[in-house]
């Protein structure tokens, strides 16, 4: 027996052992391939300005989840692509919902889309997927803005709020306090233009797009007016709305704001403000990253405050924000929920906030030491959010896109200081909006709306 075993071992050549090992490894790999589920790919689209800041979060998720892969639909081979603005992102999603083979399971949603997407049944009801405990740490207003008709459709990722940027050094030099009212803003702007020789006092978003609508809502509310209230009344031709238009026209007529106002969107105002061409700028908080670039000459001389309003109106600022929903027709609900819970977590929001200078939607992050060390104004942002009424939002109606388009068209006409008849333009805007609100409800198979001005 012993001699036979020795003879067998002598006959077993080394290459044959290698062959057996290779065959065993191959069998294990084939078995693994048969038993492991295929990888689920989730994709979503973001504005191009923030695209590259998503890549670290996506890479982290993909590394930790071997059976789920997230892709950024508009970022390929480190080359960012359109869309540039919120309207452009929405157009991509809206067209995708209408296609026979939709591409997106995750829906990165602007705050103003929720009623329309819910009404058209494009996004899933998430009410039963997130408990009160799950939502407890978020800003209450951000959670509420994700609801429509009592149901939850969007989980907040980042909040947003309009603020007034200003050159703190120039105000101190001229012994001026930051403005609180529209009257203050005009007076200080004129003084600094004269004494500093700068082109403008106040930059605001005036290009006919959603930026114009958001900016105007602040000025409108700041004068005590309203756009569309809960009773579906339209207030665009009331005295307060006319006063809001007159204030903006005054900034143009007096040379405080540019006459070529139709070109001034968010990025354009940021670049002009950064290049020392104005003392005040209305914009969103993430502008801080660009106007405080270390390569420019005044990295420590920028400050923010609430936007101005009429005497006694308090903090009046429009709310924005982005969050995640799930496409109603998804075949990957479980995986999409897992992705949303990771992307909206405190760790993910902190990483994104530090890189992008956006506003988190989790309250405790406003006092997170690493965030405050880099952006000392974040506690002030929380104060602005919590002390501004939740009523100061753009109308939460399914027809919002069309209502905004009407406002943009007629407001742009009203702001043309070379022509009279701004009251008629606002009266036309009111009538068109009233007609819109009387139309039947939009259906889920209606064509994507595109605003053409």
Which ranges are low-confidence, i.e. pLDDT below 50, for 5 or more consecutive residues? 25-36
Number of strands: 14
Taking all Cα atoms into account, the compactness measure Rg is 27 Å
Q: Which class do the helix and strand fractions yield? A: alpha+beta
Explain what you see.
Residues 25-36 have low confidence and may be disordered. The chain is 45% helix and 13% strand. Strand 3 (75-76) and strand 4 (79-80) form a beta hairpin. By secondary structure, the chain is an alpha+beta fold. The longest helix is centred in the first third of the chain and has 22 residues, at 14-35. Helix 10 packs across helix 11 and helix 18 runs antiparallel to helix 19 (422-438). Strands 5-13-8-14 form a four-stranded antiparallel sheet. A four-stranded mixed sheet has the order 10-11-9-12. A two-stranded parallel ribbon has the order 1-2. The radius of gyration is 27 Å and the shape is globular.
Give me the secondary-structure topology.
Layout: H1 2-11, H2 14-35, E1 40-44, H3 51-64, E2 68-72, E3 75-76, E4 79-80, H4 86-98, E5 106-110, H5 114-119, H6 132-135, H7 140-144, E6 147-148, E7 151-152, E8 155-161, E9 163-167, H8 168-173, H9 182-196, E10 200-203, H10 210-222, H11 239-253, H12 266-274, E11 278-283, H13 288-291, E12 302-305, E13 319-326, H14 333-343, H15 346-356, E14 359-360, H16 369-374, H17 378-386, H18 400-414, H19 422-438
Parallel strand pairs: 1-2, 10-11
Antiparallel strand pairs: 3-4, 5-13, 6-7, 8-13, 8-14, 9-11, 9-12
